[in-house]
Amino acid sequence: MIMSKANGRKQASLNEKEEIKSPTSPSLKLSKHLKRIYPIGLQKSSSSLSLSSSLSLSLSENSNDSSSLTDFGSPLDQKISLALRLIAPPARRREAPFPKNGQQQTQDIANIDPAELKRCNWITKNSDKVYVAFHDECWGVPAYDDNQLFELLAMSGMLMDYNWTEILKRRELFREAFSGFDPSTVAKMGDKDIADISSNKAIMLAESRVRCIVVREFGSFSNYIWSYVNHKPVINRYKYPRNVPLRSPKAEAMSKDLLKRGFRLVGPVIVHSFMQAAGLTIDHLVDCYRHYECVGLAERPWRHI
User: Record-annotated residues binding Zn(2+) (predicted)?
Assistant: First the structure.
């Protein structure tokens, strides 16, 4: 009986020593729990990226201070900290507030030298004056006149052979040849008229290109064009040129119907370029001074319907 009590005390002493040698730490329990809900491989990762590279990537995206990681002593604690950072949603970036005082901005623009105005990135110091003027005065301004819309669509089709600068320099010649781009007059042009235009060396348009512009009349061109955007300009707020699309679903729909109606050189890219020029879609970059002005024109209380 005495021996059994001694053995019991000895066994209890051994158990206490084992518990002291191998405690179950709270951090280990947390590690197992994290592995269950977010398996990032706390023990061993099969990814080609090391833990240190993953850690630096996480900090660059979600944190501005890396000193907090040094608060954890063991590597296991650092891994747990990384897991918690990856689980947490990234901080939302605050966008620059849109200017509210339009009158004040207009006054500021009026006081700036035109050469120093911030424009879209595709306008450079080497851009021709006629192209800069087109950007500043026409591109992105909502157009509702039948003749103006027809002219812009015809010039957009010429982008297949020329750039905007080359087209704009011959703009007056095109207007004279196509009767001011009056849709009803152009629709009545015959073979002789087409031959005369194509033989004009100053215009430099092949007969096939001229025939692409001469199409039959079908009522109000403006109502037809604006119906694709519900008679309301599409206002975009792109920050970088790479964000501006070359085509859009609305341009694709318009392109298909124009082709059915006899138009040529009206693919989705050409039509989207036309929509940008005619102000059906506002694609000036947000830091371009014309973006605010064109948005103001697009949001006017009156619209052509």
Answer: 120, 135, 284, 288
Is 135 annotated in a binding site? The answer is yes
Q: Which domains does the chain have, with CATH numbers?
A: 129-299 (1.10.340.30)
Ranges of residues in the chain with a pLDDT under 70 are 1-111, 113-115, 218, 301-305
Is 272 labelled as part of a ligand binding site?
Answer: no
Q: Is 33 annotated as a binding residue?
A: no
Question: pTM of the entire structure?
Answer: 0.64
284 labeled part of a ligand binding site: yes
Who contacts 279 (Cβ-Cβ below 8 Å, separation ≥6)? 140, 141, 142, 143, 233, 294, 297, 298
41 near 47, Cβ under 8 Å?
yes
160-214 pLDDT per residue, tens: 999 999 999 999 999 999 999 999 899 999 999 999 999 999 999 999 999 999 8
